[in-house]
Amino acid sequence: MNAFESLPSMEAQLRAAPPHALVVTARRLLAERAGAQDVTLLLADYGLAVLQPVSHLPHTEEPVSAHEGPAGSAFTRQSPVVEDLSDPAGHLVHLPITVRGDRLGVLSVRLPAGTAAPETVLHLGDFATALGHEVTTAGRDTDLYLQARRTRRLTLAAEMQWQLLPGRGCAREEYALGAHLEPAYSIGGDNFDWSTSADHLVLSVTDGMGEGINAALLTSLTVGALRNARRAGIGLADQACLADQAVFAQYGGKVYASTLLLEFHLATGLVRAVDAGSPQLFRQRGERIERVELDAQLPLGMFEETLYDEQTFHVEPGDRLIVVSSGVHGSRSATGDLFGERALRGILGATRSTPAYETARAVVSGLMDHHGSRQLPADAAVICLDWHGRTA
Asked: Which residues form a coiled coil (predicted)?
């Protein structure tokens, strides 16, 4: 009998485990069912630079690269990597942990020699996915996994912003999207948000005016108002109107939030858009890259009771859309050179064949190279969406 024929029972035991004990439970289950000699859960840090082993916090074991080596390859390629060991003989299987398109990290499982058959690796992948769902759920009740993602302390503003985000990726039959946010540990006013239903995907990128805690408070109010309006079931333009009123009521026009709102009809590819500020939208169709020109309307909260209009355009299967905040398209290097559209087009052209999540990261990496530093002077938010369309 295959040890993994009882996988539903293993998932049930993961669900029954205390939130802080998921790694211990996974280690016990895989030792019993697959003869695993060691099990390590590695979570991607906020900057997607390293994978951090979850151990006895606040101390973690040494992190490994999220882009190099066997574990990094599994995370980047989103497929299992089997590493053959010689002393002692065995296999180290690295399995990506992804929940509905959101990459969380890697599960590394050490197996005895000769036991890493393809079927076993496949079942271990299913187990890793189940563990990922439980880690996501456990985040409601314990700080353990959030702490494990940190290579250093977050600023208070960054803490607020990361708690506000839906994740860093989402995937369905119709689309796959990846998002990246920097500077990860001191982010202030930039935010991205999305929500999907049976027939629609609503996507937004928001840039709250100012810096630090003040920008984070402004963005939190803006995103909360947009979500409140969206969940009331009203149209995209009215969502912008209600959020505009909420921000103006609080700040009286002294500060405001630039926002781009997009609503995709999943069956037809029709996109409704409200451009309320500075985020820019680009479309990559085949080898052609073009900016999607939208009517620039007032940022949210600048004036009282501003009215907003929707525009429409279509996406086709194979299209890639990229949304960048002003911290990307308006950024200048130390010598005053604008990062701008030309540099962005170069990166997008070079990453056409890479997944959406890697393209979003590549844009921010290119921005860092432009500045000559890992520490960006302004917040930078990037969303990349690959549109597949709905099959008949």
From this structure: none
Cα–Cα dist 187/183, whole Å:
5
Phi, psi at 153, each rounded to 5° = -75, 140
Omega of the bond leading into 317 within 30 degrees of 0 (cis): no
pLDDT digits (tens, 9 = 90+) for 137-180: 999 999 999 999 999 999 999 999 999 999 999 999 999 999 99
Fold of 156-387: Phosphatase 2c; domain 1 (3.60.40)
Phi/psi class of residue 253: alpha, beta or left (left: φ > 0; alpha: ψ in -120 to 50)? left
The CATH number of 10-149, from 3.40.710.10, 3.30.470.20, 3.30.450.40, 1.10.3720.10, is 3.30.450.40
- What gap in Å lies between CA 246 and CA 244, rounded to an integer? 5
In one letter, which amino acid is 136?
A: T
- Whole-model pTM: value is 0.91
Alpha helices in the chain (DSSP H): 7-16, 22-34, 69-77, 118-138, 144-148, 156-164, 212-231, 236-251, 326-329, 340-350, 356-371
129-148 tens-digit pLDDT? 999 999 999 999 999 999 99
